[in-house]
Amino acid sequence: MEVSEKVYCAFCRLERRVYLKKNITWTNVVLAFLGSTILMFAFWQRWDPRGIFIFVLFLAFADIFIRFRWRMALKCPHCGFDPLLYKKDPDETAKRVKARLDEVRQSESFLFRSQNPLSQLPAVHVSDKPLEKIQ
User: Fold this and answer.
1) What CA–CA distance (Å, rounded) separates 135 from 126?
2) Are 76 and 120 in contact (CB under 8 A)?
3) Nearest CA among 10, 14, 12 for reference residue 101
4) FRET partner for 120 with CA separation of 20 to 30 A, picked from 56, 79, 131, 135?
5) 2-43 confidence digits (pLDDT tens)
């Protein structure tokens, strides 16, 4: 099973990596159990009920780490578009993307990068005439 996959940003159309794993799996449970068992035997040299606390703590850290990694990978590093935030609040997402693109325009280092989000944006043509309704 792959940990991440290459996808294209819905806004700037640049390629990036996104982690697929959102929740812990049985592999994480087994690794947390092995880690807690090793730590339990290192501290108390026998089976001890306090090892359950260590096991639950390892599971909590694994779950927090995996969810945090998944959530941080959703946001596009090039233009700042966040699809999860877009589902909840499109206006806030638009403000954040505009702020990120203004930051990119001000930075000269982005002008010659191959992953420049400004180079992939579609051209928007604004006309003086209002749009007429199609009947």
Assistant:
1) 22
2) no
3) 12
4) 131
5) 777 888 888 888 888 888 888 999 999 999 999 999 999 998
Residue 23: beta bridge partners? none
> Hey, how many other C-beta atoms are within 10 angstroms of the C-beta on 6?
9
Contact 20, 36 (CB under 8 A): no
Indicate the residue type of 30. V
* Tokens encoding 30: 């087994």
Single pTM value for the model: 0.69
CA 63, CA 60: separation in Å to the nearest integer?
A: 5
- Long-range Cβ pairs for the range 60-65 (8 Å, 24+): 62/24, 62/28, 62/31, 62/32, 63/23, 63/24, 63/28
Tokens at 135, concatenated: 């009947």
| Distance (Å, whole) CA 38 – CA 103 | 49
pLDDT at 21: 87
